[in-house]
Each structure stands twice: as structure tokens, then as C-alpha cells.
Amino acid sequence: MTMQLDSKIPAGPLADKWTKYKSTIPLVAPNNKPRIEVLVIGTGLAGAAAAATMAEAGYKVKAFCFQDSPRRAHSIAAQGGINAAKNYQNDGDSVYRLFYDTIKGGDYRSREANVHRLAEVSTSIIDQCVAQGVPFARDYGGLLTNRSFGGVQVRRTFYARGQTGQQLLLGAYSALSRQVGKGAVEMFNRHEMLDVVKIDGVARGIIARNLITGELERHFGHAVVLATGGYGNVFYLSTNAMGSNVTAAWKAHKKGAFFGNPCYTQIHPTCIPVSGDHQSKLTLMSESLRNDGRVWVPKKIEDRLKDPLTLSEDERDYYLERRYPAFGNLVPRDVASRAAKVACDEGRSVNKTGLAVYLDFKDAIARDGKDAIEARYGNLFEMYQRITDENPYERPMRIFPAVHYTMGGLWVDYDLGTSVPGLYAAGEANFSDHGANRLGASALMQGLADGYFVLPYTIGKYLSTQIRQPAISTDHPAFAKAEKEVEDRLNRLANSSGTKTVDEFHKRLGKIMWDNCGMSRNAEGLTQAIADIQDLQKEFWANVRVPGGTKEFNPELEKAGRVADFLELGELMCRDALNRNESCGGHFREEYRTPEGEALRNDEDYTYVAAWEYAGENQEPILNKEPLEFENVELKTRSYK
Amino acid sequence: MKLNLKIWRQKGPKSEGKIVDYTVDHVDEDMSFLEMLDVLNQDLIVKGEDPVAFDHDCREGICGMCSMVINGRPHGPWERTTTCQLHMRAFKDGETVFIEPFRANAFPVLKDLAVDRSSFDRIIQAGGYISVNTGNAVDANSIPIDKETADTAFDAATCIGCGACVAACKNASAMLFTSAKVAHLNMLPQGEPERAKRTVQMVAQMDKEGFGACTNTGACEAECPKGISITNIARMNREYFKATITGSK
């Protein structure tokens, strides 16, 4: 049985919805807030910002991260920038234009009301960050400067050299640290959430494992916020941090939270290519490089391994400029990635593995000088050289697409509430704002929007119903039951007497996912992948080897639990991709494409959010649909030509 | 290539540790140092031995989670490079490599190469912020900041909080870390109101955590993977002097 989901979008004209909502939702009085406890899982942009802001408001907050410090969450690695509709460049930007670009960039698969709210609060984010001391790039006049990003024709991206995520996260971390210092937030470093505790159908707490001692802990909260990031590591190789995982979101899913559009994965076009089997992760080269770098491959297959410096302009195919003259090298990520795949599939890749194209700064250096390029991208060029031992000032970079971000995530309504009352999801962990493809510099925007300006309001609507709810003792049988289940599973992993390492299973899962549910997908491959993953799940539980015990510092045990969850998620992603008989954004089904090879949407049948419901072990998940209604934007074929 | 590793093994915070010898074969020069340790750990797991615990996360040199001292140097032989960005082409076939944890009283060893750096968090909690609640901010361009000041503040703000400065210092001083944050915030107009209080409180917390004093040897700057300058320490000393002499706390 599928059900229609209530997205709780407020009535009224698009541009008034958020303002009216904020002015009319019920509030929690200041004297009640200190009695209300909120658990925030994850301390990246969304989590740290939400924890700090809710503590400032007076709630009692506990925050959790698996890293050794909240400052290390993977938001820190975002390079290029953060979008905001400030129109400081006077180039025609506006809230509506940012809204429109985001809807179009997402290939018309996101909610108008959410995206408009995101565009509205974007300007406050920049103000807030500057007030915190975030050192954004400035002009000589002392004012903020901007750069362009893909899929957009205005300059609205604020940046801090090539390490914008670091500076924004350190801003949120400082706000969080201030509240920890005051005692308003209790911080739990090196803790991993291993289950949600539900009482009478409502989220009331979590089971967390202290990663140093291995002890399980019970924590009560009137509400639980998951800000636990994306699940790109299901592919084994991705630009995510090694610890990035789906476990918290997946446990929530198994406790009743629907999973929205799991197949929407962003494959980022400019990453350093794989060098060998030992590879543990892939490194991104910021999209901002496409402002000055030109992407090309040789025209002739036989030239592909020749020294690029010997190839004349006539022998090069600047394929993005040729195929998409209006946007050129700044087409959105999904388009750029697919074009790179096409060039490589044609046999024109520029390295031995057959998986690389050039990103060339020769013309930019000739035009602006080496110093100017170094000022813009110095740290990225350094990183490239360290990894590849090649000098990008002298030779074109070699790049290839890699898994980078997941637009899918826990289904949430306008309040950022999941389908479990009291359980919220913010940032990359939710599915909400990017549709089928995220535009560059929009992840930082969404993480901070959710954390600073959306969730602290929307959760108040729920918490206002909780003021008479006393804290529930963690001796409650629901906590004991959840803890027992977690413990049993940990014991099962630790006592497994198999022969294969966790990494071996993870790599095999990653290969299945990349080959069948990666840059292009088809029904046959997806069907086979589902069967292969099911086999791999069985083999994992029968034959994995996890050294050490559960009551100790045991990184292999942590990994094993996460890979077990990735194995289940991977299957759901393939099911979702198989269900969606269209191509949209990052989801490219080979059966559905235009004669020119571009993505072919099917608006009639698939203008909906696929919200998957867990139905129990070895049961097929249930598909619920949230129809997407476009009242302000006309659905068009996305064109960057 | 093949490497002989001498790795510090320590079961827990209270256990005694020792150097244990390992060899790894099939090391590719394109591997990162941590990928070389991955290879070692996979072998150990298959052999039924306890893998080497080490901290790491982003593996692109920005999260600051990886640590370890390689051949006596925090983050190993390459300048301005974290362990995760160090590649094996830095080593020769047959070389012996010593791998130890960051050592400081304020960074107790948790297991093997992983240490507890929560003392850094507490230094930030003592004052490494600007007190501005969400929603209180004025328009971003109403605070012009000259480019040179903004760029200098940025240079200080790029600290990744890894702790290499402490590990490099013979006194295990945290002055470079603390001063980078003090300099970043005190230089900006937004940080001005809390300037004195911030400096005094962060220094007090640093002392309380058991970090040593600074004797200006400059080892911290030499080993810092982000090239944070010791001029920040000089700046913090001036700030501290001014704050204490004027009696502001």
C-alpha cells in the first residue's frame, strides 16, 4: 500500500510562505526552553549551526560527532564557495533568480517552497558568517568579492580561497564551542549514533557508542536532529571523508523514516583520477577551476597518450565549449561529468586507465599571469602536484568524475521533519532542496540555511507541543530494548569468524554500485546489481572478519557496522534507480535520452519524490510518492546550449 | 617497494607501549602514507593480528585528524604536508621508517598512534569565538575590512588544529595553535570588543591543559602543515601584555 505524503507546505504565494510561516507558528516561551532537550547528531555545517542556534535560543542541547572534534566534520573539505542572492556584483541576481537556477539545476525534481526559502535565507547566512569572523575573499575596497560557479550566469558565490568549507565550518564550530563553554551544549566527541529510540511512535532518544571505550550510552531527547551528511561512500571511492557514512540515517530509516530519492547521486566532474587498486579515496579539484580552466581531449584517438604540450589547438577538442556554447566550461556538474564519460567512452581519454580528460590553464595563465592564477587556486594546484607529481602550471591537469554528494536522503517535510514524529534531518542528510542535481556552492548554502535559519524555527513548532512532556528516564524499556539490539549486532560482527576484511566487501560493493548505479544506469544492470548486492550481504555476514572486541577502541568494528548498512542502502539505491524510468539530473538511464544524448525526463509519470518505506528484513521496500507541484516555474527541457 | 616499519604499539591510555617491527611489500610510490598503513592493516587482519589504530578522516589535508610522527617529524618529511597527503615517493625501497604518536602530556595516547586532542577544543571554548547569536548580524558589506588585514587574518585562520605544532615543540607548547586563533579574531573589527578577554582566557586554558611554555625555537612553524607563522605568537604575546597591563580580563 502506498500513501500520499503530506509535505506541509504552507499556503499562499511562493514569496510569502516562509515569512508568514515564521510569523504564525507556535513558539516555545523562554522559560520553557531550558526544560526541553534536543539531541543533534553530526557537527558539520548543519549540525553545528543548529546545535549552536538552538542553545542560543535556550534549549538544552546535546551534540554528537564520531570524529575526535566537531571541527573535523567533512563540511570542512568543501572548497569552492557558498551561493547567496546578495547581488553585490549588480549583475541581475535576486532571490527569485537563485530559486529559479536551483530548481532548473535540479532538473525540476525539487520542491518549489523549500528552494525558495533556501534562496531567501541565503543572504542572512553571509551576514551571519561575516559577523562570526569568517574571512571571505575581499576586494581592495574592503568589500566582499564573488566568483561564478557552474550552471549560473551571475557571480553570486562567496569564497575563502579554495577552502570555503573550512572557514564556514570553523565559524559554526566557534559558535558551537561558545555554547559548549557556557554549558548550554554538552558535546560528545568520538561518539557514534547506532539507533533511534522510539516511544509510542515518537523519537525520544538515541543509543550511542563511545568509540574510545566501546560502551553503549542512552540519551533522551524531546527531539532528535540528524545532521549526519551524505552516503557517497556507498561507492567505496568518493570524495567523502573515510568516516562519512549512512549509519545514523539508515537506522532512522529502519525505524520508520522514509528515504527520499536514494538514487540521486552527484558525480563531480573534476576529481583527480584513480591511480591504482590501493586507492582509498578520491580528491576533488574545485569546480571553481572551471572558471579559468578549459576542458579538452585530443580529437584523434591515436593522440590520446601523446604529450599534451605537443598537440596544437587544431588537434584538441574543447568538447564542453563545442557542445554547450552558452555555458561552455561552466555547465552544471551532471552535464560536465557525462560529457567526460562520453569522451572517454569514445576512446579519447588521456591516461592509461582510459579514465581521464584534461583541464588546462594555459590560456588563463597567458591572459592573467601565473600570479593571478596562483592567488585564486594556489592551494588546489599544490594539492594536485603533491598527489600526482605533475605541475599544473606547466601541464594540463588530468581529471575524471567521482562520486561527491548525494541529493537523496531522509525524506523531510517543509518543517525538516522526517516521517517519524520528533525526528528531524538537516543538511546533506535530508533529500530536500537540490532535486536530481545540486549546483556548485549550494551544499554549504543549504547546510547553513538548515542549521542557522530553518530548523531552529521549524523544530519550535513541534517542541511547542512538548512543553508538558517531562524528560523520560533512559531506564524505560524502549531504551533497554534498543540498546540490546545494538549490542547483539555489535557482538555478531565482532564474533564473526570469517576470512575476508571489511574493506574487501566495501570495495566489491563500490564496484557494483559504480558499474551499475553510477554515471549511467540501465534496467538490466540495475536488476543484476540488486541480485549481486543481496548475495554480497549474505556473504558479508557469513564471512567477514572483524578483529578485536566491542568494548574497546576498535576502528574496524566501526567500519564493519557502516559497511553492513551501506550494503542495505546500495540495494535500495538500485531499486530507486530502476523504478525511475527517466533520466533527470545525476540520474541518467541509458534507455531514456534525446537523440543528442542528453537526459530525457518523463514529467508525466515521474514528477514525484520517491519516498521509500522500510518494510522489514528481506521484504521489498514500499514506494510512497510525494507529487511535486510546480506553480511558479514552467517545466522545460534543461538546456545549457 | 618494500619498507621496514617500526611502529609504536600501545593497547590503551594506561598500558605501556613499545616499538614493534613490521615489513610491508608492494608499496607503490603513488600511494599515500595512510594507504600504505591500510595495506599493512589488511595484512594484519588476515593474519589474525590487531591492526594499527591511527586517526584519519578527510585524507585531503584539511580536517586535521591525521597525526603521527614519521622519522621524528610530525606529518613526516614533506614541508607543509599532512600525513594523509604525504606520498610514498618520499621514501626509498628498503628504507626503515619510524612511526610514533604525537607526544605531549596534553595529548594522551588512546591507542597506538591515536591521541586525545580534546584539549584544543577546550582552548577554543574558552574564547576562540566572536559572541554573535544567529540572527543578530548586520549586512556583510557594512563592515569593510582592508584586503591586507583580511588576508592576514585568513592566513591565521587556515590552522587545521592537528597539533603538529605541539608535537614538534620540545616543551609541547600550544602557542602556535592558540595564537593563530587569537590573531585571526583579534585582527578583525568584529573581534575587537572581546579582544582582551579572549586572549587572557585562551592563554589561561592553554596553561591549565598542561601545555608547555614557548621558547621561540620555531619548530612549530617549521612543521606546521599549513605554514602558520610564528609572528602570530609575537602578536598574541603583545595582545596578552596589553590585556593584562590594562587590567582587562
Integer-rounded radius of gyration of chain B: 20 Å
* Proportion of residues in extended strands of chain B: 5-15%
The count of strands of chain A amounts to 19
Percent range for β-strand residues of chain A: 5-15%
Q: What can be said about the biggest beta sheet of chain B?
A: 5 strands, mixed
Question: How large, in whole angstroms, is the Cα Rg of chain A?
Answer: 24 Å
Helix content, binned percent of chain B: 25-40%
Shape of chain B: elongated
- Looking at the overall shape, the CATH architecture of the largest domain in chain B is Orthogonal Bundle
Q: Number of DSSP helices of chain B?
A: 8
Strand order of the largest sheet of chain B: 2-1-5-3-4
Question: At the first level of CATH, what is the class of the domain at 487-627 in chain A?
Answer: Mainly Alpha
Treating each run of at least 4 consecutive H or I residues as one helix, how many helices of chain A?
Answer: 16
CATH superfamily of the domain at 487-627 in chain A: Fumarate reductase/succinate dehydrogenase flavoprotein-like, C-terminal domain
Any overview of this molecule?
Chain A is α+β, with helices and mostly antiparallel strands. Among the domains of chain A are: 268-403, Alpha-Beta Complex (Flavocytochrome C3, Chain A, domain 1); 487-627, Fumarate reductase/succinate dehydrogenase flavoprotein-like, C-terminal domain (Methane Monooxygenase Hydroxylase, Chain G, domain 1, Up-down Bundle), CATH 1.20.58. Helix content of chain A is 36%, strand content 14%. Chain A contains 16 helices and 19 strands. Chain A has helices at residues 17-24, 45-57, 95-105, 112-132, 164-182, 247-254, 319-323, 333-345, 362-368, 370-388, 443-463, 477-494, 502-517, 523-543, 555-579, 603-606; strands at residues 37-41, 60-64, 82-83, 157-158, 185-188, 191-199, 202-210, 216-220, 223-226, 259-260, 265-271, 294-298, 316-317, 357-360, 397-406, 409-410, 423-425, 608-613, 622-627. A 5-stranded parallel β-sheet of chain A has the order 5-2-1-9-17, with helices on both faces. In chain A, helix 2 (45-57) runs parallel beside helix 5, helix 2 packs parallel to helix 11 (443-463) and helix 13 (502-517) runs antiparallel to helix 14 (523-543). In chain A, 61% of the residues are buried. By secondary structure, chain B is α+β, with helices and mostly antiparallel strands. Chain B has 2 domains: 3-111, Beta-grasp domain (Ubiquitin-like (UB roll)); 118-245, Alpha-helical ferredoxin (Fumarate Reductase Iron-sulfur Protein, Chain B, domain 2, Orthogonal Bundle). Chain B has 8 helices and 7 strands, in the order E-E-H-E-E-E-E-E-H-H-H-H-H-H-H. Chain B has helices at residues 33-46, 118-125, 147-157, 164-168, 175-187, 195-208, 219-223, 231-245, and strands at 3-9, 18-24, 69-70, 73-74, 96-100, 109-111, 114-115. In chain B, strands 2-1-5-3-4 form a 5-stranded mixed β-sheet. Chain B has a two-stranded antiparallel sheet with strand order 6-7. In chain B, helix 5 (175-187) crosses helix 8. The longest helix of chain B has 15 residues, at 231-245. Chain B starts with a strand and ends with a helix. In chain B, 55% of the residues are buried. The model of chain B has no long low-confidence stretch (mean pLDDT 96). Classes of the chains: A alpha+beta (641), B alpha+beta (249). Chains A and B meet through helix 2, helix 4, helix 5, helix 10 and helix 11 of A and helix 1, helix 2 and helix 3 of B.
